[in-house]
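Example 3.2
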Amino acid sequence: MKNLLKGELKKRGVTYAGLAAKLGEIGVHETERNLANRISRGGFTAALLVQCLVAVEGHSFRVTDE
């Protein structure tokens, strides 16, 4: 999941600071540092993944079995 999220952020040119701001706009309060730590460890829920994708307007993404 972490590679999926990192890829979507990179594709859209969104930094962790930008993600934190965009999440705040939809009512999800996370700090840049907390996001960076959680994403790098992969320690986040599917709910946070969906919230992040909604925040960066990632309406669709591809999941493959590699």
